[in-house]
Amino acid sequence: MAISQQVFLRDAMRRLNLTRDVFAARIGVKRRALDTWLLPEGSQEARTMPEVVSRFVTEIVENAALMQKYAQSAQSGPLRDRIAIDNKHQLLSVDQFTRESVEELFRVADLMQPIARRRKVSRVLEGAVLGNLFFEASTRTRVSFGAAFCRLGGSVCDTTGFTFSSMAKGESIYDTSRVMSGYVDAMVIRHPEQGSVAEFAAATNIPVVNGGDGAGEHPSQALLDLYTILTEFSRLGKLLDGAHIVMAGDLKYGRTVHSLIKLLALYRGMKFTLVSPPGLEMPEHLLDQASRNGHVIEQTHDLAAGLKGADVVYATRVQKERFSGENLEGYSADFQVNRTIVDACCGPDTIVMHPLPRDSREGANDLSTDLNHDPRLAIFRQTDNGIPVRMAIFAVLLGVEGLVQHSLRDVTWTPPSHIGPDDSVFHGID
Amino acid sequence: MAISQQVFLRDAMRRLNLTRDVFAARIGVKRRALDTWLLPEGSQEARTMPEVVSRFVTEIVENAALMQKYAQSAQSGPLRDRIAIDNKHQLLSVDQFTRESVEELFRVADLMQPIARRRKVSRVLEGAVLGNLFFEASTRTRVSFGAAFCRLGGSVCDTTGFTFSSMAKGESIYDTSRVMSGYVDAMVIRHPEQGSVAEFAAATNIPVVNGGDGAGEHPSQALLDLYTILTEFSRLGKLLDGAHIVMAGDLKYGRTVHSLIKLLALYRGMKFTLVSPPGLEMPEHLLDQASRNGHVIEQTHDLAAGLKGADVVYATRVQKERFSGENLEGYSADFQVNRTIVDACCGPDTIVMHPLPRDSREGANDLSTDLNHDPRLAIFRQTDNGIPVRMAIFAVLLGVEGLVQHSLRDVTWTPPSHIGPDDSVFHGID
Amino acid sequence: MAISQQVFLRDAMRRLNLTRDVFAARIGVKRRALDTWLLPEGSQEARTMPEVVSRFVTEIVENAALMQKYAQSAQSGPLRDRIAIDNKHQLLSVDQFTRESVEELFRVADLMQPIARRRKVSRVLEGAVLGNLFFEASTRTRVSFGAAFCRLGGSVCDTTGFTFSSMAKGESIYDTSRVMSGYVDAMVIRHPEQGSVAEFAAATNIPVVNGGDGAGEHPSQALLDLYTILTEFSRLGKLLDGAHIVMAGDLKYGRTVHSLIKLLALYRGMKFTLVSPPGLEMPEHLLDQASRNGHVIEQTHDLAAGLKGADVVYATRVQKERFSGENLEGYSADFQVNRTIVDACCGPDTIVMHPLPRDSREGANDLSTDLNHDPRLAIFRQTDNGIPVRMAIFAVLLGVEGLVQHSLRDVTWTPPSHIGPDDSVFHGID
């Protein structure tokens, strides 16, 4: 490049208004590497930045400029107003997002990474109370939302169990929601019945997050899935526009793929390959919606054929608990994503995802554990991303995203450099 | 009035030692309104204070003077010592209160309103741990106590389920209580058996709050009910002495009305109209107790007749779960408090209350939802008041009520101006 | 003594590098008493230190010197590295401890006492989140760990119930553990199956504490038991080396005594008397292990004979829930530790312990309640010690033990001087 890499990088950081730490995280490199690229060329420790980084940074800066221009015209005011539903700061569906607003949310999630990775602590929501209302068991989603709220400094009141004691006595959703709203500052609601979370949300003006409503939506899962894809692509120097996404498994009842395909369809020139056992195909209306945007959609029952050229393989569990007439205990072995088929059909830059939990019992033929040591398996990076994404959702809905950066303090304790013994080297805390 | 309203109001605030914010809250007006009354008379924005406010403030100042006098003689020392039971800082029954001490508690609750209404944050109990022990399901009471403790800066350890695992192994209440007391700084206990909370309380010196013990007491509910009546009356410019209170519904098993009538009987010249289906009348000993104080008590089975001239209509749910022989699924339609009968029999200043939950299923004939948009319906203002009242209970029992005022910080997030979409305009956060 | 007691005491505090508060706690006397000993001899309030205190302080100083010498050679680096298992900062078994490292842990627990006794507050772990995962009900252990973490300033996410919702869907322990590790900073795991906690621990690099794994270990219980013995002995001016420990009851399934005898065997010249009903004797491998260290072990079925000369009587509950073929509802009356037998066989300095819960139902013949007012009964001092010991475990595993001392602030609330109405005078908070 014509200008020196130091000038180029400094200029990029200035235009993007990012610190070195955040910039390094944004482009998926270690802070130490960035530092060596920023050293004067004569310096002994100085290193040359790889070409892909240069291209990626150029892309980011150009996109940011576009985005800013867009922001100055169509968009204005806080993000929570732009994604609002019925003028309320609530997150019920991925349909509330545009490409621009979802990426703005992810920039807030990027801000949360130093906290999620336990290098920094924030108390920006100190004094706020979350009502974490789970009318259906989902331990991990509950803990993920709860931990995210705690990491912003707030407190959490949990409820679990199939029903509130008061609802068992005939209380309406309207009353339950309005009463809880007087106690807490935000609610996450998980409920087995589709539409019930919207009913809760209608009865209150406080922020409500849909934590999954039966066959309905689970927007925070789709958001963390998309965030994971973007983060992984950023590390690999790929762009999402034009990518090839394979979704494999139970695409009929797999709620997560329904929401994810909607979000991915906000990008340009996508290719979706949908691999499912007969009878578990993706519903027509979702196919229509995605293809209206000019994306290429292919459907097949042949996993090996489908995986060819995939940038992302998104495998799903059989949602037995939602079956109405289908007769299936697990997948046949033909539908299992495992090391053999991934090695045979995918490249070194493919990433393998799954919404978890995966059924690891024999005969389930869910995503195989033989990929656990393979750096392409992104499933735990995916669940890890639940924390920054859910922190971003809370911060945006409560309108404190602008206070986070200056609220950061160093952690007092010393976390392990990698939280999982099989975590890939590029996924360390540092 | 002879003196200018500015001098009058300033003098009142000085005598009562209240800030403008707290004074405005005390008299139930917006701070903005108070500000306009305090402007110099010539000023463009200045407004004339309504006559009712002037009377109300006069009454408050006179009462405060009386109270102070009383305080200097009979009462002395911290409130928690005056309401103590067996020399312990515990709240087991409404019988622990006099009119003076209950109003002193409510002045602390008033201090908590800026926190409860999410304008201020306090961390005055930072480091303290609450044991929130629910041996009987009562999700909302549990969350209300938990959120109240969190809003004071404390942490909460919850237990739910019909029994402790240790008690299932034959552990005595004495042991359970003493062991838990070594872990936490205060306990709320909900238990299905009458008297059991007192047994817990006897085994510890740490603050214990009775969160409901079967057919026994639920003092925090009665306190928030009385606080709601006083707050509503304050807004309406009414005094509680001499008021007409209608209690309607299951007065036999409705624990809340039993405790509430005891507290109301601390006031002067009350008229109680008790409307119940045959067989669900208020127990004799409570009637005796209330009438001993010279209050007028009328009993009827005719709801319309009973509602005439009511200042407060307190409706209750059928406590089916406490029935021993009675044969009743819900109320007959004759006992339903609904819009038609309220419009027909009550004035614009009547307030309608209910301990909640209400049974909104068809045929239950519990308090009707057709009043939801009627500003006379105070049920959600009532549950909202659970937070400041329970905060006050904790602050008083732990002896930190004097530290609250100076611990207040502004909230970082921006809550909605009204937490419920149907909240009346006078019930905004601002 | 040749030198004045003031010089002696000041020198000791300097050598031990302890504040007056901590030093007083270390030697088990009230701060006020220590203060009077430190006053100039002529002063009116000055008191003479008892001979036993002088001997005890001498012992402590000498031991500390030895320990320091030892520390400079064999030991180095943070405690968590020395007790690490598979290079991880996890606590799975008491086998991870030497006498030196266990006493180092207890010095950290001593630091925690002002917090545990509610005189001080620390926020040293602010921003950290504990995953308190209880796959088996154990309310009090869960609350004890949770309260300990809260008292260090952290937040707690609890899970209870026999299984995770995700594990019910076939998720492996590996996946559950790794996913949770992305949400929280440390995990406590209680699980009904022996070995399962180690499986959880293997799948993560974050600190894991074994909260009990079936017939396996429950190391924090054994540690608080040993800490209690040492603290009680310190108060009584006794040394643990050479002490006579009686363990009575179900020694076959009583997990706590298995771990405790291993820890006690780290000391010198112990005498263990093991009293159990026929068929519930301590397993052979534990007897072998303890006797290899040269300790004296006696086994008997005669409680009265066994109690003679005991320094500690450790009674246990019948672990019916772990019986496989044994036919026993409770103990026969012959095995009950009660006032009559303690008065007949034990001296005034014997201490009586029990892991709790004790079965207080008639016919269970578990540790009798008729000792509740006897100062020798240490069971509640024992459970109280769960807080400082568990705080120490967390602080050490997370590497913040060095920050605690300077993080202390005064409590804002005023706790009772004794938390239990029957607490002995020497067990006050002050």
Describe this structure in words.
The structure is a homotrimer of 430-residue chains. Chain A starts with a helix and ends in a 20-residue tail after the last strand. The longest helix of chain A is centred in the first third of the chain and has 23 residues. Chain A is 41% helix and 11% strand. A 5-stranded parallel beta sheet of chain A has the order 8-7-6-9-10. Chain A has a 4-stranded parallel beta sheet with strand order 3-2-4-5, with helices on both faces. A two-stranded antiparallel ribbon of chain A has the order 1-11. The mean pLDDT of chain A is 90. In chain A, α15 links the parallel β9 and β10. Chain A is globular and about 75 Å long.
Unreliable parts of chain A: none
How would a crystallographer describe the biggest sheet of chain A?
5 strands, parallel
Spatial extent as radius of gyration of chain A? 22 Å
Fraction in beta strands of chain A: 5-15%
Strand order of the largest sheet of chain A: 8-7-6-9-10
Oligomer: homotrimer
Output the structural class of chain A: alpha/beta
Mean pLDDT over the full residue set of chain A: 90
| Largest interface, C-beta within 8 A | A-B, 42 and 49 residues
- The coarse silhouette of chain A is globular
* Percent of residues in helices of chain A: 40-55%
Distance linking N and C termini of chain A:
30 Å
What is the number of beta strands of chain A? 11
Number of helices of chain A: 18
Q: What is the ordering of alpha helices and beta strands of chain A?
A: HHHHHHEEHEHHEHEHEHEHEHEHEHHHE
Function (chains A, B, C): Catalyzes the condensation of carbamoyl phosphate and aspartate to form carbamoyl aspartate and inorganic phosphate, the committed step in the de novo pyrimidine nucleotide biosynthesis pathway.
Family (chains A, B, C): Belongs to the aspartate/ornithine carbamoyltransferase superfamily. ATCase family.
InterPro entries (chains A, B, C): Asp/Orn_carbamoyltranf_P-bd, Asp/Orn_carbamoylTrfase, Asp/Orn_carbamoylTrfase_sf, Asp_carbamoyltransf, Asp_carbamoyltransf_Asp/Orn-bd
Organism (chains A, B, C): Castellaniella daejeonensis
